[in-house]
Structures are given as C-alpha cells and as structure tokens.
Amino acid sequence: MTDTTARPLPARSFSRLFRASPPNLADLVTFLLLAAAGVLIVRGLTDVAQPLSRLSVQPVTLDPRELPGYALRTTLRMFAALAASLTFTLVVATLAARSRRAEQIIVPALDILQSVPILGFLTFTVTFFLRLFPGQQLGAECAAVFAIFTSQAWNMAFSFYQSLRSVPSDLQEVCHGFGLSSMRRFLRLELPFAIPGLVWNAMMSMSGGWFFVVASEAITVGNTTVALPGIGSWLASAIARKDPAAVAWAVGAMAVLILLYDQLFFRPIVAWADRYRFEQTASADRPGSWAYDLFRRTRLLPALLAPVFAVGDLLMALDGGPHRRTVARDRAPSRIADGAWKAVLAALVLGSAWLVIDYVGRSLSWSDTGRAVLAALCTLLRVVVLIAVASVIWVPIGVWIGMRPRWAERFQPIAQFLAAFPANVLFPFVVIAIVRWHLSPDIWLSPLIILGTQWYILFNVIAGASVIPTDMREAASMFGVRGLQWWRRVVIPAIFPYYVTGALTASGGSWNASIVAEAVSWGDRHIAAFGLGSYIADATAAGDYPRVACGVAVMSVFVLAFNRLVWRPMYAFAERRLRLA
Amino acid sequence: MATRTIAAPQPLVEVRAVSHHYGRTSGAGQVLDTVDLTLNTNEVVGLLGRSGSGKSTLLRSIAGLLRPSEGDVRFVPGDDKADPTVAMVFQTFALFPWLTVLQNVELGLEAQRVPAEERRTRALAAIDLIGLDGFENAYPKELSGGMRQRVGLARAIVVNPSLLLMDEPFSALDVLTAETLRTDLLDLWSEGRMPIKSILIVTHNIEEAVLMCDRILVFSSNPGRVAAEIKVDLPQPRDRLDPTFRALVDDIYARMTARPAAPATASKDGLFPGTGIAMVLPRVSTNALAGLIEEVDAQPLDGKASLAELADSLQLEADELFPMAETLQLMRFAEFAGADIQLTALARRYAQADVDGRKALFKQALLAHVPLAQHIRRILDERASHDAPGRRFRDELEDFMSPDYADETLRTVTHWGRYAELFAYDEDGDRFSLDDPA
Q: Is the confidence at residue B46, as pLDDT, over 90?
C-alpha cells in the first residue's frame, strides 16, 4: 500500500539490499521478539479451546509463576477485541459515510453507544455468550472480549466516519477524474487519510479497555460464576482471600504489561502513522519510537508485513479497472423512499421502546424506578464534585508542567500511562483502608470513580498549556498580568478547549467506573455506597435482569442528558470563542 | 522556437447551452447561465472572471466532475475515433501526502491498470519532462510549492489527455515561482513536447491570461455568462512591457469593470448582484478602502489611476482589487472611466479628513447607498428596545441569496456599520443594537 513493501521502488530496494547485506543485529532482535509473540499466541489459543469445566478443575491460583501466563491471556483478549473493533470500524463507519440512509441510523447510534455504561450490559452479554457456546471456555472468552469491544469500538468508528466525511474535496476530484474504482479510492485516499485519527482513537480505546478486561474476567451473574484465567481473575481471587501481596503482584504485572504494549505496539504504530498526517509542510517534531526504528532497520519486518499489503494489492487487482462514472444531475432524493425509510425507523424505535418498558414494567413498580433515579442523582453528585475536585488539583499542576517544555516532555507519557492503567486494580488498597479505619463508604468510596479517569484532565491540560503561544505569555508578563487576572484572562481561556475535552472523557469514564467502584469487597466484607453504580452491581450479582435493565437505562439517560446539556454547549463555546487560531 | 505545427483547428469539446444552479431551481443559486463554448485543437483558451462567475463550475463540468443542471458537454471524437480524454491540474495541487512523487504521478496510470513496468517508464518520463529528476522518491511535504505544482502537472500529462484543464494553477504560488512555471509550461507547449492537444486554463489574473492564451473568454458574474471573447494574436513569447500587450490588458480591465448592458433604470448598484437589501456585498475591510483612497489621492496619481497599474504597484490580484474598487464606486467615492478609476470629490475630502471626519463621511455614504445598512438602522430606530437579533436579518437575506452569501453580506455590513458607528453588534448574543459599549 505504501513504499514499505509490495512494490518497492527499484532505487530503494537496491539500496536496502546493499545496506543490510547479511541479517543484522536488528533482524535478530526483531526475530526473537516476533517468535516469542507467536509462541505465546499459540499457547493462549490452545487454552481457549478447553472446556469450561477445566476452569473449576484448575482455578486461578495465586502463584506468581502463573502470573505471566495470566497476563498473556489478558493481553490476547485485548488484542482480539481490538481486531474486532477495527473490523467493525472499517465496515460500519464506511457504510455510514457512503450511504445516507445507513448514516441516519449509525451516527446517532454510535453517539449514544459512546456514552452509555458498558459495564451494565455485562450481565446480558455474559448470559448470551455462555448460552451460545454451552460448556466451553470460548463462550466466557467471547463475553469478555465483547465487553472490551464495546468499550473500544464506538469512538473508533465515530472518528473513522468523521475522517471519511472530511476527506479534502480536491483529492476526491483527483480520484474521480482518474476514474479510481470505489475500492481503490478507499485504499488510496480514504483509509490513509483516516489512519492518524484512527490510531489515536485506538490508543485511547485500548487505555479504556484495560479497565474493562479486569472487570469482565471474573464475573458473577446470578448463580453463574466464571473466572477466566487472567489478571482480572487473579485480582478477584486475591480479594476473596484477603491477600494484599497478591494484589501488589497484580499491580506490578499490569504496569509491566502496559509499558510493554505501549513501547512495543503503540509507539511504533504512532510513529508509522505519522506519514499519513495530512499536512503540506513537514512538522518539526515527529513522534519517535526506538522499537519502530529497530523494526525499520530490519529486512524481516517488510517480509512479514508483505501479506498485509498483499491483501491491499489483491483488492486493488480485483477492481474492474477505470470507470468514469457519469455524475448524476443533482436530484432531490425520492420522497416516497425517504418517507418509507423514516416510517420503518419510527416503527423500530417505538417497538424497542415498548419492548423495554414492557420488560421492565412487568416486574418493576414505579417505586423501583424512583429509587434508581434517586441513586442516579447521588452518583451524579459524586461525579460532579469529583470532577471539580480533580480539576482544582490537576489544572494548576498541568499548567505548571505544560508551561515548562522539558517537564511536559517527561510528564506527558507518564500521564498517558496513568490513564491507561486500570484503576480497578488499585481499588483493594482503598477498601483495606476503609475497612481498617471504619470510614463511611458513601464518602470514601467516591474517589475510586475518578481514580482512573482524572488523568485525562491532567494530560489534556498539559497539552493545552504547552501550546499557549510564547508571544501571548510574553505580552502578559510585559503588561504585568499576574495572579488571579493571569488565570482569568490568559491561562483559563487558553486551555479551556483542552480542559473540556479532558473533563468530558473523565466524566464519561467515571459513570462507567461507578458500577465497579460503588460496590466493592474485601474477603467476605462487602462495602457499598448508595448510588446507581451499586444499584446496578447489586442487581447483577442477584441476577435480577429487569432491575439491571432499569438501572442501565436510567444511567444512559443521565449520561446523555449531562453530555447534551453541559458538555456539548461548553465544547461549542470553546470551539467558537477560545480556539487559538 | 515555436515548433508546434499549426494544423487546421478541429473542434475538441463542445459546450452547448450549459446552465447550472445549486439547490432550488434558478434564482439565487444560479452560477452558470446558458454558456456556449467550443474548444479547438492547438489552442490555449483562458476563462477569465471574478470569483463567483462560475468559471470553475464550467471547468468541472468539462472534467466530468459535475453534471450541469441543463445543457451538454460533448467530446468530439478525433481522427482515431477515440473520445478525447481530460486531466486536471488543481489550484491546491491536490497531491496525496502519503505517496511519493513517483507514486503520485503513477496514480492515474494505476487506475487504468497499466502494467507496472510501463507505468514506471511513463511516469519517469513525465517527471523528467517536467524537470523533477532526482525527486522521484520525495514526499510532497518535502517540496516547495512550485515543485508540488510540477508534480501535479506531471500527474496530469502522464495519462496522455487530449485536453489539459488547469484550475488557477499558479495562484497559490509566489510571483517568481509562478512566472518560471508559466514559462516552462509555455515552452513545453509550443515545442509540442506534451501529448496534449489543447489547454483550458481558469484564472482571475488578467496578465496571466494575456500572457498564455490564444483566446480569452471573459465571464461576467452572478450568474456566469460569457461577456466577451478576445483573440490574442501576439506572438509567443510575449512581452509584458510591449504596448500592444498593455493595451490588451487595459482593454480587459475596462470590460470587466463595465456595467453589464442592464436596463437603464439600474443604478450604480448594478455591479453587485441583486438590488436593494438583496445586494450581495463583498467582504472588503474599511482599512483597505481607506488605504486605496489614500493611495489614489496622493501624488503621483492625484485622484486618477489605471486599474492595471494599481494592481501591479499594490501587488493585488485583480480579484482582490475589483471588489474594493467597486465598493468605492457603490458608495460614490469613485467612478470607473474605461480601465481607470477616478476618485470623486467626496473621496478626496475623505482622504484629507481626520478619523472622526472620515467616519462621518463613511456613515453618510453607507446610509445613502447601502440599502441593507439603511434597513438595519431603520429597524433599530423603530424598535423601542433599539435592538434586534441578527437571525432576523440573516433570514431576510436568505430569501434572496444562498446562506453563504447571506452570512458574508451580513458580516460585511456589520463591519462597515461598526466602523461608521451606525450600529453595534454583539457576537455572543447575535444581536444588533444602537448602544455603544463605551
């Protein structure tokens, strides 16, 4: 697809041949890394094929020697979900961008799915997949992978769709003028154009995904308990046995895992994707990656990647050659077809609404719904207060760091690492403290919901502060602007768009986190804070499906309303007035 | 030097009664109105016009990128019975940043499924021809603007088009680079080294059109029509300082500022499309207007200047100068006389006045000659609260013009009204009012 493989330019392939005559050291290192990855994948896959009953014969043991194996299974789940998300993105987002009618359903659906609490659905998906593959580990694996998938896919698809919609019109005209077929246009123009946004969103999704993989490996729905081998199950087991050392092992393993995947997987991909950035001038600082440089110096990698590019070439070879489609005259789309389509949509919407109301209404009374709404208000209060607290703490720190380029350079990766670190691994330590000092769970469990998501505020503020133009800062200091005025007139307006982005992500994540953070346990001690999260968690543990559905629905409505009424207007305001053009 | 054999011209493309409008039928969205045009072999034809004159729309109709609402574009088969083909060069270059120079040039051949071997040979030959040897493996972002446009040119000619379409190909380049590229292109053309039979070039640069074209079609705006057809018989290479060249340039300036032969009742509003509050106002800054008045008022021009020379000395494109000059005319600060602009007594008073005096003069002119400004002021005066939502005027304008034009017109009148202190506008609340924030 690009210059790397398939059809190397003559000059380039010659120079490569001479430069790297015998396999070099880089080749050896890369080969070892790849071979190890291959062996691990095969081992992981053979385990998946085992029947479910083996899980009870060989339950998760808290033996540190088993930990690398568990970490591997967890990682494999992550990548399986990433592959699924990518496939979903390529198909669904492309469909939405190409067909107006599909767009009418897909775009609002993605928008809503982005903000609903995924953990709440775990109950339904686990039940579904276990029934799909009765008695096999594969069913539980699918449920876990699906949970991660639901945390990744929507924003990737949304970003891809938006990229496809903003492909520059002159490049589209070139494709049209040369009669590029639809497949060729996709591979030559649309996909490359969308790659940087897709990679960035995939990275964000993966960060969120670690949280869900930990939450979804060991799950109890009613009287079914499944503990898939992995770090999440290790953690659950450590909590059940009150073993702080084992929890510490899990934290360490998670840290190593995230570091490895970041350095060996995402940094190289970000560095590679940089070439697809749509810019006409080369930017000064390009993302670097030692692993990418290492891979690039080898002859092995192009050979290994060749099949990937061969697929692209094959697809292009399959197209029917140039065809200059005659452009249709601008015609109003058929009214009747549009009307029929809208009628179908309306029927679907009404039907689903009826289905949900009927299902929930049959076993729940109004007082149950009232309780859920009350609980939601409680959780809302928690989210708002904690976002405010986190902002008060992290905005000044972020600004301080962002204004010092050398510190920003060092801290930005750390903040991103912290955002990727699944906070639920750290929960037990807080629970131990609450149990020991008999603290009020309603207050002291609250910080947990922002533990993992506060970092989004920090690294967005750092990014915002580091791009405040030097001339603006110099002007402010020349006119003696300082203190409160400096914050109000200079810094806060400048970082506001970035802050809103961070706070929006943090608030969405916090709602999700509340499902695991408001109800926790340590050994046989169960601690819960009153809120919608614990409402859903309790209902899940009890296998009370209607109450789960009711809780999830209420939470979805709250999150959507909060986004629409608070974050969207703030975002629009920031875009309009405060963007440094 | 001219080795191109002058065969009897044959028609290549025939454009018959092409009209085009966006959105609803005719009215505000009309961009092209019954345009007829025949392109022959062995000629370079220029489409010259202001922005909004539909010349790019016509070019895209010929390129097959859009289908005009009415009328036909017909390709006349050549001696080999094959339909003529077209390729286009873009103002923005339209290069794929993730493809190298060579891959960019190969794109069209690849789509035609030309075998790899032949593709490479042809692409390298085109790169060689266009003077990009040694840059085959460079990415567009590593190249200067002029070199990028060379890649665009190589990409277009490598597919052997009969007709080369160029959409303001040099307007994104600096003066020096544009000149070199023009000369190189003309050399290649006159030496017959490119496989193309004809070139159609869209431009708003009058000198460029006279320099390059054998035939120039001057377009009038809103809706676009062919206002004049001018044959340029000067031998190539042409000399900008040649008196005949200058005379031709002046002639075209005069034609482009001449009021269309409209009904005698049409006032001086006639230059901008629409009348009354429906007049589309161009985005012209009051600072630029003041600057232009000062420049023409001062020695050595002393109140009268040739538009062509003014454009030259101020380094303005005709497309930038025209709206400014026409705004002056609308407000009776200036008049056109042939290809010259002549300041009125009012403008000369303006040039000598201090800031407040200037604002007063501008306010008077605005109230007297810009109906939309009058209208807004009257509404604000009539209302007890002395304020009105911007939405109200935007909706009103959209009855007469497209939303884009409505937005731009309202923005312009806001800018002028603020300068004249005729009314105030609050962007946050989208409200017009009479009170000053002072």
A: yes
Mean pLDDT (chain A, rounded): 79
Based on the fold, state whether residues B331 and B389 are members of the same structural domain. Answer: yes
**Cα torsion A92, A96, A98, A104: sign:** positive
Tens digits of residue pLDDT in B156-192: 999 888 899 999 899 888 888 898 999 999 998 988 8
Query: Do B169 and B291 fall into the same domain?
Result: no
Does the domain at A53-277 match CATH 1.10.3720.10? Answer given as yes
With the CA atoms of B32, B38, B42 and B44 taken in that order, what torsion angle do they form, in degrees rounded to the nearest 10? -20
Q: Choose among A9, A170, A189: nearest Cβ to B90.
A: A170
- Is pLDDT at A18 greater than 80 in this prediction? no
Terminal-to-terminal C-alpha distance of chain A: 34
* Contact residues, chain A, for B67 at CB < 8 Å: 326-330
| One domain for residues B50 and B174 | yes
**What pLDDT sits at residue A348?**
83
Domain containing B414: what range? 286-433
Q: Is there a contact between B103 and A321 if contact means CB atoms under 8 Å apart?
A: no
- Which of the residues A276, A280, A315, A318 would you substitute to probe the B interface, choosing the one with the greatest number of B C-beta atoms within 10 Å? A280
Do B74 and B84 form a contact (C-beta atoms < 8 A)?
A: no
| Of the residues B211, B235, B256, the one at which a domain ends | B256
Q: Judge: B136–A9 Cβ closer than 8 Å, yes or no.
A: yes
Cβ-nearest to A327 among B65, B116, B140:
B65
Residue B77, in any domain of the structure: yes
Q: Inter-chain contact A179–B113, Cβ cutoff 8 Å?
A: no
User: pLDDT tens for residues A338-375?
Assistant: 788 888 888 888 888 788 777 777 777 778 788 889 99
A174, A188, A282: residue with CB nearest B141: A282
Domain stops at, among B256, B271, B295: B256
Residues B226 and B369 in one domain: no
DSSP H/E element including A55: helix A53-57
Under an 8 A CB cutoff, do B64 and A177 touch? yes
Q: Which residues of B touch A3 (CB under 8 A)?
A: 100, 103, 137
Query: Global pTM?
Result: 0.79
CATH number of A364-581: 1.10.3720.10
Q: Is A320 on the interface with B (CB under 8 A)?
A: no
Q: With an 8 Å Cβ cutoff, are B111 and A282 in contact?
A: no
- Ranges for all domains in chain A classified under CATH 1.10.3720.10: 53-277, 364-581
SS3 B268: helix
Residue the block writes with tokens 């407000």: B331
State the maximum Cα–Cα separation within chain B, in Å, rounded to a whole number: 79
User: What would the mean pLDDT of B250-269 be, rounded to a whole number?
Assistant: 61
- Of A310-324, B232-246, B397-411, least confident by mean pLDDT is A310-324
CA B310 to chain CA centroid, Å, is 18
| CATH number, domain with residue B217 | 3.40.50.300
Instruction: Cite the DSSP H helix spans in A479-567.
Output: 483-485, 492-517, 532-542, 545-562
Same domain for B311 and B402, yes or no, is yes
Task: Please state the domain count of chain B.
Answer: 2
Residue A168, chain B, CB below 8 Å: the answer is yes
The pLDDT of residue A53 is: 62
Inter-residue contact A508 to A517 (CB < 8 Å): no
Partner residue facing B96 (CB), from A9, A189, A326: A189
CB contact under 8 A, B112 and A326: no
CB pairs under 8 A between A and B: 98
